[in-house]
Design brief:
By secondary structure, this protein is mostly helical. Helices cover 67% and strands 0% of the residues. It has a single domain, classed as Rhomboid-like (Rhomboid-like fold, Up-down Bundle), CATH 1.20.1540.10.
Length: 190
């Protein structure tokens, strides 16, 4: 998928934030399954009970749903696709943006995978990562079609929360822009 996440020579890289987020997502899905949700997908009521973002409840003061909804998945296929994307995008974001910034983007963007993609797009476009032009172009040429393709799927397939995808992408673009500005302030020559 997106870019190479191999470590620099002589430097070992681990991805504890990505790994932790994937594990939490899988554990929540297992718990949902043991509580009665089917592997092929739960009902709307089950998803809401597990913390899905449901406008009337979220707007009535249950703001925590904006966070918990990033860990709720409707079936094994949804979980599998999102974890595959998270594993690839998360490692790339953790490597280029840093662990804390990646974690903040994930929990700060509804549609967290799209949030990560948006943050990476901004950071790459604004020069906040130490990569050559060809590598930046290669990663953008992978990220942009990923976003477009998945937004089209979200618009066509019923039941997909495309508003969360769009909101996550926009939030990620903004957060990635902030990260890029902060990176330039810390290292003015970049």
């Amino acid at each position: 998928m997106v870019g190479d996440v191999s470590p620099l020579p002589g430097r070992e890289v681990s991805f504890p934030v990505t790994t932790t987020i994937v594990v939490i997502n899988v554990l929540v899905f297992i718990a949902m399954t043991f509580s009665g949700s089917s592997l092929s997908g739960g009902t709307a009521g089950q998803l809401i009970r597990w913390g899905a973002n449901y406008g009337p409840l979220t707007l009535a003061g249950e703001w925590w749903r904006l966070l918990t909804s990033t860990f709720v998945h409707i079936g094994i296929v949804h979980l599998g696709i999102n974890m595959w994307c998270l594993w690839n995008l998360g490692r790339l974001a953790e490597l280029h943006l840093g662990r804390l910034q990646f974690a903040l983007v994930y929990i700060g963007a509804s549609g967290a995978v799209f949030g990560i993609a948006g943050a990476l797009i901004s950071a790459l476009r604004l020069g906040a990562v130490s990569l050559g032009r060809d590598e930046i172009k290669q990663q953008l040429n992978s990220l942009l079609p990923f976003c477009v393709y998945n937004l089209i799927i979200g618009a066509v397939v019923p039941g997909i929360d495309n508003a969360a995808h769009i909101g996550g992408l926009l939030a990620g673009l903004v957060l990635g822009g902030f990260i890029a500005v902060l990176a330039r302030q810390r290292q003015p020559g970049r």
